[in-house]
């Protein structure tokens, strides 16, 4: 079980109440988001929004209802819907993108590629052993690796064969199936081969191992990194992952050799962010950190109001991080609620730009995530997607 409860039992409830009472970000009487928004759109349980370099804003839904779209294309400036693709059965995975398609899979036992310019399905491939599995089986997005798209099929209970399924990006034809010894602990990521091409995927497994698979399904390497590794980030030839051993690790993507270990004070729930020679990571220890990506030297850290559950994500010279809310922790923990929920904006040098705490549940439900997509930052709630106003990032 992750050690997220170690740090003063995630701080005592009275301390949280005192912090909320003293917060000036929520002095209004309405239940709108405490930060200015450019627009909001009605999307039930939106998955994390993505935007290709040229194209619409793409968002999926984790809704259990059949009529809710599997994927929708929105105008990034207005939030207006351009097209939507529906499908059978609820519970769909978050999206993955390449230069033409959005990929996802669903409890309807289908893997699907959608042309994101037209909204037309390019192919659909049948899956097995997904329909009767727990909803967590579609928790993580597919991974685009070379000419293959890898679907991480892995539940939170013992009701599914945990596996990676590789399909052709062009036709959806089956390339490989690699079974895992335990559930995924976080989201996999594409990793380069020795020649620098995107020809593999690195998967964090709940047995404490990090495993790299080639696109023929063969296992290239495995490394024991300790229990409950986080979602994986890859930049160049380096893999970054957090661990419940209270470390951030950097590994050689081709060999799995550990290059450095940087100490944290608790486990990591979110995927690290790598940009401009730095790796940023938020911990369950209430801190957001910046490390030198080459050496692992800590550059700065800042204490927040709760465990980091999403981010940091980056737009320009700003970092946006979410703490609190509900998070599904793999293993025996299940869905864990953390309070308070808050959104932070930092400069990349660690300077705190602004803080927005959500004292009550706002219109649209609890905030689940915030991501950068193109030149905007988007916030996903239980029943709503919002684009934050530019002044959120410009505030000083």
TrEMBL record:
Residues 38-180, 207-366 form the Pyrrolo-quinoline quinone repeat domain. It comes from the Archaea. InterPro entries: PQQ_b-propeller_rpt, PQQ_rpt_dom, Quinoprotein_ADH-like_sf, TAT_signal, WD40/YVTN_repeat-like_dom_sf. PANTHER family: CELL SURFACE PROTEIN, OUTER MEMBRANE PROTEIN ASSEMBLY FACTOR BAMB. This is PQQ repeat protein. It comes from Haloferax denitrificans ATCC 35960. The lineage of its organism: Archaea, Methanobacteriati, Methanobacteriota, Stenosarchaea group, Halobacteria.
